[in-house]
Amino acid sequence: MEKANWSSPVAGFILLGLSDDPGLEKIFFVLILVMYLVILLGNGVLILVTILDSRLHTPMYFFLGNLSFLDICYTTSSVPLVLDGFLTPRKTISFSACAVQMFLSFTMGATECVLLGMMAFDRYVAICNPLRYPVVMSKAAYVPMAVSSWAIGGTASVVHTSLTIQLPFCGNNVINHLACEILAVLRLACVDISINVISMGVTNVIFLGVPVLFISVSYVFIIATILRIPSAEGRRKAFSTCSAHFTVVVIFYGTLFFMYRKPKSKDSLGDNKEDLSDKLIPLFYGVVTPMLNPIIYSLRNKDVKSAVWNLMSQKCFTR
Any stretches that span the bilayer, and where are they (predicted)? Predict the structure, then answer.
């Protein structure tokens, strides 16, 4: 097979996708398309209400709007290509498009790690120090917090994408995956990837270990404060303001820990092996989680449900 690297004129990589069975591919196409449309609708509505409804102009909903925008960007960077792959017999992607996809997906994932930590801090201040909340979480504070989340995620993505695209890819250019995910591409390198593995391990500590530790400590203080509230109604209301964020954190980080627990390389025979779980976990992270986020934040949040209802009422009234 012709040697492939990022400066070579070959067409690019071949994506194997989920299955070779045409019947299963049609089922996957319909399921992923429906979930993608739900993601666009649910997160789009959340962004709209957080902008249009003045009652939602608070730090918590500002972060939520960023989270929804991030979910839309992440899924849009990969899902259309995945859907197209179900319809075409030869699923190819150019080197440059693969690099862009790796950069975007890693940026969104790293940014969400930091953003969820920022949201945990917001809940900590709101519950543990409510009198100082307007000062600590002023607009001059929460806007730079959100911007820094995007900047940190983008910087980490530039580093890892650059390290990956500089590797020589010789011989096998078949990616046994749904899309150009960094770990799957690394397995095709024909040189030692120790530096990539070490840098990925450091990134795991920074974007998985540190935020999880910070969020865990925040929730220890939050729970301790809530339990000291004398009335049952007060405790219920306090818990309800955190339950959505906590649920999203568990789903998001749980999936990431499974996906990035160990950067895998090729086996001794050079085979590019990957079981179905290695494909389904990124699929769950990339499609199911963004679909659940707006549902989780809407079901138990009266302010969001009221804002959505008011928006729908206004649309119906104008018609």
Answer: 27-49, 61-83, 103-121, 141-159, 205-227, 239-260, 280-299
